[in-house]
Amino acid sequence: MRRSAAQKEETRKRILEEAAMAMRVQGHEGISVADLMKRAGLTHGGFYAHFASRDDLVAHAVDRMFNDSRAILRQYLGEKPDADGLAALIDFYLSEHAMLRMEQACPLPTLSGEASRLPKAARQRFEVGLDTFRDGIRRALESSGVRDAEGLASSVMAEMIGTMAMARVMSDKDRALAILSASRHNLKERLGLAMK
């Protein structure tokens, strides 16, 4: 790869990293191309050398966020998901760290409410990311012998996403942490993971 092509790819990655962080915190409507390019240390005019449009950027930023989410799923659930991995994923997902580090956390709590308003390509990619997350949970539940793992996986995922969204809107940090703690405990107890 020529140096200029390599530099262009690095610049594109930097723009996507900034866009993914901004979307996790502010949603897709919170992204201004001018502000994003400034945060990436680039000029506004250079944007179109990397993306066809703002909608194109949003779609690729959704991919970027869900690549991070897939890495988290691999870390906790691996190739052969099991109950211990699922318990660890629940603990991680509903942690104080994940609550406070929105710019690096799962995009689902921030973007789920506005997913229906995402540009078409971004929405399709969002749905793939959602399905991948649910599938990881489903496979872990199946390995534990749970009946109707598909339905339960959707319920577990909804509770995790909703709990994190709810905790993040609390102005009182202690209340937010209590919400996270209660959901971690209740989820694991309901799934038979409380002692794991």
Walk me through what this model shows.
- By secondary structure, the protein is mainly α.
- It is built from nine helices and no strands.
- The chain has a domain at 55-191: Tetracycline Repressor, domain 2.
- The protein is 70% helix and 0% strand.
- Helix 7 (120-143) crosses helix 8 (149-169) and helix 8 runs antiparallel to helix 9.
- It starts with a helix and ends in a 6-residue tail after the last helix.
Structural class: mainly alpha
Judging from the principal axes of the Cα atoms, what is the shape? Answer: globular
- Measured as a percent range, the helix fraction is over 70%
CATH level-two architecture of the domain at 55-191: Orthogonal Bundle
Mean pLDDT, as a whole number? 90
Q: In percent terms, what proportion of residues is strand?
A: under 5%
